[in-house]
Amino acid sequence: MMVCGAEKKRQLHRGGSGDYGHDDVEGRGGVHVWIFAEKTQQLLLVQRHHHFQGLWDASTAAIIISPHSPLTTARRKLQQELGVTLAEDAFEFIFSFLQQESGSGRNNGGKEINNDVYLVTTIDPIPLEAFTLQRENVSSVKYVSYQEYESLLAKNDPHYVPYDVHGQYAQLFEIITKRYQENTVARTLALQKQLNRYAPISLNAELTGLSDSDKDALALIVKAAAVIDEIFYVQSWYSNPDLREWLKEHADESELNKLKWSYYKINKSPWSSLDKDEAFLTSADSAIKVLPNATTKTVTAWKGLEYRAAFPVQKPLCANFYPQDMDKKEFETWKGNLDKDQQKEATGFFSVIKRHSNSDDDNDLHVVPYSQEYKSLLAKAADLLHKAGDITTSLSLKRLLHAKADAFLSNDYYESDIAWMDLDSKLDVTIGPYETYEDKLFGYKATFEAFIGIRDDKATAQLKLFGDSMQLLEQNLPMDNAYKSEDVSAAPIRVIQLIYNAGDVKGPQIVAFNLPNDERIVKERGTSMVMLKNVQEAKFERILMPIAELCVAKEQQELVDFESFFTHTICHECVHGIGPHTITLPNGQKSTVRLELQEFYSAIEEAKADIVGLWALRFLISKGLLSESLVKTMYVSFLAGCFRSVRFGLEEAHGKGQALQFNWIHEKGGFVVHSDETVSVEFSKIENAVESLSREILTIQAKGDKQAAASLLDKYGVITEPLKVALKNLETVEVPVDIVPNFPILAQI
């Protein structure tokens, strides 16, 4: 098991709890829980009898009996053995290990089982008199300094159940030591360095084109977007809102706390988007919560159990869309027992998967629609949108706001997405659940986001060519004609000056988006694109040009220009609307690329949009629809953009997709690395490299070939030596990785 089916790093461990209080039962692994008191730096140990001859052991340990989950087993076992009832957010998964059983008590003949290890961090020790001991398993409890306990294990003290503190189990003690013996100065400097990767930028636009009524509506829409922000914090991780409030409350207490809060606001979680989603905070930084009735016994003058709301070191693949201890196999087994309509709900954009809390069978998963899961917040946002819709003078905006408000409460977003595509308003609004990047387990579930801007009418008019060329591009895509669609709609493109965003806008900022993702609408109406021009300008000036000066060969640096950067971004978004979406599998079954590629979909789709977008630019030039002057500038600007996007990290879809493209083109000779560590475009080879990769990705999507997608990303979606050198050079001169926007509009309204 472990958190949300994330990849395990395990090694064989000999010794440790071999019975867990169950005899001769078929288990699905084991679970260990260690209760750690922060103030005294002590671990709670229990003295076990039965098969352990009175040896001291973990706070609790148990075999996971199918169909129960690891976390549920841990909670139940603590309650049974010690009379302690803890909330889910008290348990921090820290690692898994394989354990070689001796056969004692279970007669398993040396069988290996997997164990999940959880840490519970309390502030003070739980009073010993508060425990209610299960006498058939536990005879006594005591607290011991974690350092003393590690020393006892290292010496193989015969009074303690053995754990290999020189192997995988050393992690328990290393984690505690690192958290509570940290160098504050070093951590402050490290956080400041992480923050410096983002260049602050102010994004604003003139509101003179808005009527007074629309300005009033804008204020209400921004308030609704702030509610959307709250929903996203919940979607990211269930204890995330508590962490947010805690960090905000304590931000002024020290320079370190201020930096924690500043970097948290960028990432909107304890995990750093630019560092492979590794935590820059620990549970020791987290919110303190109180459980007044955590134990069955009442202790005089004890106000209750104070604990740290936990989160794992590595970001959970499931975010908060699925139970934290559910893996892919469990989900697929459950889904296989559902009828077709129920399966559609389970894999749909707008629902979460939960366990029945009062069920004895905690494998009893069920679907909860967003309209129910986030009911109070969505009702608040809907009310604000209805009020804004009542006062705006734009008929299309009025329709959108009312339709979106209704969708929040009904969970049916079809009509509101159609209204969004038809939007023709100076005040441009995108709000709702759209992208699925946060669901790294399957790529099914959509996060809430909001983008509010002022339409740039002149720039919008200039881009009509691209939207009108969608069918032409579809018919000429470099893939088998059998996979091409005969009916692709023109794609409306809107250019806006962004004045506010919220929700899933963490880490690197997007420069454009193509929506909706509903395959029904894509098939019937196509998609619409929104270009965030002021965001693109900021990134080009603050990031892309400095990257080009360092990484692109000197003789080609003058070929990096904003027009090519902006135009390729347009084609990137256009290409999201063409190519395979709804597909027919080899067995004749209808499906979608998203459902078939699952967790690989996002990276493959972003790579497709990039590389096929580059192909599309060259195609439009060849048809005389774009200027020949773009031929060289588009390739060199794309090269500079490769280094920009790879810096987002391979955990991010755009970053992994960009690594795939760079490495493929480099292998085919389209990019050439020089002795001075710069890279140039080989114009005689890049066209074939771009077309061959476009064909490869489009064919994978058309076939719904998940294994081929995985193989392609495994081989090419990596940091190769040329990328590693470029990233190191960029870090050395501290070129920003991305921007962090602030919005003056908040003060104006």
From TrEMBL:
Gene Ontology molecular functions: dipeptidyl-peptidase activity; metal ion binding
Region Disordered, residue ranges: 1-21
Keywords, in A-Z order: Hydrolase, Metal-binding
Domain Nudix hydrolase: 26-166
Pfam families per the UniProt record, alphabetical: NUDIX, Peptidase_M49
Transmembrane segments: none
A GO cellular component entry from the record: cytoplasm
Domain of life: Eukaryota
Presence of keyword Metal-binding: yes
Protein name: Nudix hydrolase 3 isoform X1
Gene encoding the protein: LOC107457944
